[in-house]
Design brief:
- The complex is a heterodimer.
- Chain A has two helices and six strands.
- Chain A is an alpha+beta fold.
- In chain A, the strands form two sheets. In chain A, strands 2-1-6 form a three-stranded mixed beta sheet, with helices on one face. A three-stranded antiparallel beta sheet of chain A has the order 4-3-5, with no helix packed on it.
- In chain A, helix 1 packs across helix 2.
- Chain A is elongated.
- Chain B has a single domain, classed as P-loop containing nucleotide triphosphate hydrolases (Rossmann fold).
- Classes of the chains: A alpha+beta, B alpha/beta.
- Bound molecules: zinc ion.
- Zinc ion (ZN) binds next to loops of chain A.
Chain lengths: 135, 237
């Protein structure tokens, strides 16, 4: 349920960007995101709801590629970095200090868009599974 | 031959909502009112606490409520009697308020009164500990409620919400003697994800902790009043 709203908001953000920066090419093949592990966004769910959300929009047919970013904290006492055991403990293993500083994991970033250089295929063949490396 | 052509955006995924939230906050700053986003899981006691606080503070502050939690709707009539208008926000089936919904609520509110006459605006969010943590509505401060009946692991299961909160209210502490839960453990878990926020134990039933909670509110209100057109205050990390 809430991924649908996230995806809608992502599309609105992309629309705002399109209005402000005319894309260099009309057809976007891939939208690259970075999604941190310490956010309320589930990457799989985002991908799952993406296709339906962009149907009929300028991003129809574009692939959503998500780079997950792990949660990393930095201990403010000794400056070493650590990966908390999520949902179990948010403390530094070195000094047993609370997770005060977060180095990464809060990312909800639209990193880039990739454009398709070729023309879209004249006939869509939905029965053929998309080949990820070529998409 | 494949030569990927790319544009770098570096834009927040929720940028569209953030723009609207900043726009709302600009209005709040112009009106010199403090906006609070009150969040919790369903049944954490948001409504009873809000009723206590609104009644207690009605003589001191001009306030209004944007009500986004239809399942625990405030007793609007009773609050209107102490001079606190309650404006319902249409959320559809959304599991959180977004900045556009709050903007719509502000329009309705402005039909009834001049928002610049207000000191405090309460936004009661939908009962949910997940997405309200990511969707700003333009608030100056986030308040998260956690009932002692929810057990002590909630802050670890929903850490983003408690990380983002400026104030965590541990509610229903009058029930502690009847529960197999230690309030110190709840607080310690909040502290793991947010070492510096205010953590206040309260009971809407006995009134315990309300003085401390209202004291915190007064401090936030005074901090805002001292900085007219203050820069948006963003949460830690
Ligand atoms: Zn350390």
């Amino acid at each position: 349920m809430h991924e649908v709203d996230m995806t809608k908001c992502l599309l609105l953000s992309m629309n705002d960007w399109k209005r402000q920066h005319a894309p260099r090419q009309p057809r976007v093949s891939t939208v690259h995101l970075q999604v941190g592990a310490f956010t309320c966004v589930e990457p799989d769910q985002l991908v799952f709801t993406w296709e339906a959300a962009v149907q009929g929009s300028w991003l129809a047919g574009a692939r959503l590629a998500i780079e997950p970013v792990p949660l990393v904290g930095r201990c403010v006492l000794c400056a070493s970095t650590y990966a908390p055991l999520q949902e179990q403990a948010y403390r530094s293993p070195c000094c047993d200090h609370p997770m005060e500083e977060i180095v990464s994991g809060r990312e909800l970033r639209i990193r880039s868009v990739e454009y398709a250089l070729d023309d879209p295929p004249a006939i869509a063949t939905p029965s053929t599974p998309a080949c990820a490396p070529c998409a | 031959m494949h030569m990927p052509l790319e544009d770098t955006l570096g834009l927040n995924l929720l940028a569209a909502n953030q723009h609207q939230a900043e726009h709302n906050r600009d209005h709040f700053d112009t009106w010199n009112l403090l906006c609070l986003n009150v969040m919790s899981s369903p049944g954490a006691g948001k409504t009873s606490l809000l009723e206590r606080s609104l009644t207690a503070l009605a003589g001191e502050f001009a306030m209004a409520v944007l009500e986004g939690d239809m399942t625990t709707q405030l007793d609007a009539q009773r609050l209107e009697a102490v001079g606190v208008p309650v404006v319902p926000i249409t959320t559809g089936r959304a599991c959180h308020l977004d900045a556009a919904m709050v903007s719509g609520g502000l329009r309705l509110l402005a039909e009834r009164l001049d928002p610049a006459s207000l000191d405090l605006l309460w936004v009661e969010n939908v009962g949910n500990l997940v997405c309200p943590a990511e969707f700003e509505v333009g608030e100056h401060r986030k308040v998260a409620l956690l009932s002692v009946t929810e057990g002590d692991d909630k802050p670890l299961k929903y850490p983003v919400m408690f990380r983002e909160a400026d104030c965590v209210l541990i509610t229903k502490v009058d029930l502690l003697p009847h529960l197999p839960v230690e309030v110190e453990r709840i607080e310690a878990h909040v502290r793991q994800v947010n070492p510096h926020c205010a953590v206040i134990r309260v009971s809407a039933t006995t009134g315990e902790g309300l003085a401390a909670w209202h004291g915190w509110l007064r401090e936030q209100r005074a901090a805002l009043a001292a900085l007219p057109l203050a820069a948006p205050l963003v949460g830690v990390a």
